[in-house]
Amino acid sequence: MTSGGPVGDAREPCAPWKGRRLVLGVCGGIAAYKSVQLARDLTLLGATVDVVLTGSARNFVAPLSFEGVTGRGALTDLFSVEGAALHVSLGREADCVCIAPATADFIARAASGRASDLLTTAVVASGAPVVVAPAMNDSMFAHPRTQANLARLEASPRYHRVGPATGLLAAGEGSGPGRMAEPGEVVDAVGRVMGSGGALSGARVVVTGGPTREPIDPVRYLGNRSSGKMGVALARTAWLRGAEVTLVTGPASVPLPDGMEVVRVETARQMRDAVLALAGEADAAVFAAAVADYRPREVKSGKIKRSEAGNSLTVGFTANPDIAAGAVARMKAGSVSVGFALETSDLVARAEAKLAAKGLDLIVANRAGEDGAGFEADTNRVTILGRGVAPRELPLMDKFAVAWEITGLIEARLGKGGGVVRTGHPHRKSAGAARRQPE
Ligand code: CTP
């Protein structure tokens, strides 16, 4: 997934991985420069990140660079002052081990179970899942031995591969597959591995997002300012919590996520058809789309010409279907539905009325026109209401953080209901207590 990075700066901090421990292994490749960003992103998401550099990694990047972004000393030596059993404690305490970049040499050593330096020793001593981000020259990646070693690792449920991408390699070295996945993709791969195992793991989640466009003639449409950011953030956080996500989105102005099914639609009726086809099987649905309530009664087959229409034009409208209400009526018992309510006044009362009218379990209310919230903004200030629970007002937060809260509430409700048939993600464990994964 490449849908935006983690959250930092002035907003309410979002630290979904607080209390989680990660080992970030950095091997000797030019892509090691990306690992500093990766270490920073993982740290900003709340994780405690122990960076382990191989000997050759130190030729590309300095331990101090990592110390600057993680606030912890980077580790390099198997036999060091940190203690003789460092390799054991590192691995034992890790919730996930991430190797980025993973060189051909590391992959070969890991595939054969070698423990020849601090990093490989920690991997062998750990039972935690391992996310591997290969990065190397394209001919090294294509080499049958490298491919065989990777296949051997991937045969184990403990190992998860992200990348490599196809793109420019080191200067003058072409552009075949071998480029390390971008830090955002590696963060998401680590997050999915750590996030799976809760009540959303394996759950089928449908998210609507973006605006709809209602055509007036072949070149014009009725639309709105929705960017699609909230829908993307909801889809991404549900995916990070292990769900099988389908994002049904109108034309969004932000990149759409990888790693999940994305259904692109234009009109409200196309969105309705796509959502209704999925609603019956969904364990949860979140309706974040800004659906046009009305569409032109008649779509002109030719362009409306000013020279013919003159100085005034009247377009008649007809109501669009209510997608959320229609979908909720089809959803199975024990499922969870969440709507949004954009209001200019009487926020709580109007949102409560929508919650009841559409048969939703939760509704996320926000005020139109507030600075830093709503359409196009990166942030949102919302109040979450549910049937039989007191309204919960959240501070101004990044949309990712808002989405993390919402999907957390869905997870909690599904956990209580217990109605989800899970497809099995064996990687979740309580923080700080690694469970051995089968090799
Ligand atoms: N919604 C929907 N289909 C529609 C209109 C709205 O699925 N045709 C969903 C939205 O995605 C949101 C919720 O219903 O989750 C409320 O949308 P909102 O635009 O706030 O309210 P409306 O239902 O359109 O009501 P009103 O225009 O009176 O505010």
Overview of the molecule:
The protein is of the alpha/beta class and 439 residues long. Helix content is 32%, strand content 21%. The chain has helices spanning 32-44, 63-70, 86-93, 104-111, 118-125, 138-142, 144-154, 183-195, 229-240, 268-279, 306-309, 323-330, 347-358, 399-417; strands at residues 21-26, 48-53, 96-102, 130-134, 159-161, 165-166, 177-179, 204-209, 214-217, 220-222, 244-249, 261-264, 284-287, 294-296, 317-319, 336-343, 362-367, 379-380, 383-386, 389-393, 397-398. Strand 9 (214-217) and strand 10 (220-222) form a beta hairpin. The two termini are 26 Å apart.
Overview in brief:
This protein has 439 residues and is of the alpha/beta class. It contains 14 helices and 21 strands. The longest helix has 19 residues.
Which runs of at least 5 residues are low in confidence (pLDDT < 50)?
1-10, 421-435
Which ligands, by name, code or SMILES, are bound? Answer: cytidine-5'-triphosphate
Tell me about the biggest sheet? 8 strands, mixed
User: Strand sequence of the main sheet, in spatial order?
Assistant: 12-11-8-13-16-17-19-20
Shape: elongated
What portion of residues is helical? 25-40%
Mean pLDDT value:
89
Beta percentage is 15-25%
Secondary-structure class: alpha/beta
Radius of gyration over all CA atoms, rounded: 24 Å
Number of helices: 14
Question: Ends: how far apart?
Answer: 26 Å
Report the count of strand segments.
Answer: 21
Which properties best describe this structure?
5-stranded parallel β-sheet, alpha/beta, 21% strand, disordered N terminus, binds cytidine-5'-triphosphate, 14 helices
